Amino acid sequence: MPMIETYRGVAFPWLCDQMGHLTTFRYVEMFDVASYHLMHALGDRPTRHTELGWADVNHSIDYKAEVAIGALLLIRSGVVRTGRSSIVTQHVMTGPDGEVEHAVLTATTVRFDLVARKSVPLPDYFLTSCEAYLVA
Predict the structure, then answer these.
(1) Whether the predicted model's global pTM rises above the 0.85 cut
(2) Closest CA to 40 of 58, 54, 56, 26
(3) Residue 17 placed within a domain
(4) Which CATH number fits the domain that encloses residue 95?
């Protein structure tokens, strides 16, 4: 399955720095929003009363082309691989037509027991869902 759309937005002036480019802070914010949409697509439905959550343990961002004020942005996301209790995802930020690749985030996230403060295995339904979203 190809990557799915997880974010669409605009680089408004108040999201940019004094040089007129999207700030690093905003890249991370947009990728974070995209990750929530991907996890939802994978079947994760957290509630405020659950003892399970997620812990981001690694982010790597490759900045490829500057995002100027007014740029339209699209993020597509997918699953790179899964482990016993972790998932590696990839999020690609482009223009709306996909021709210009602005940045790529690769993230490692661990399923986490918030009470016991330790990782827990990914559930079978989640692993099955991840298979449908694997990217090359």
Answers:
(1) yes
(2) 54
(3) yes
(4) 3.10.129.10
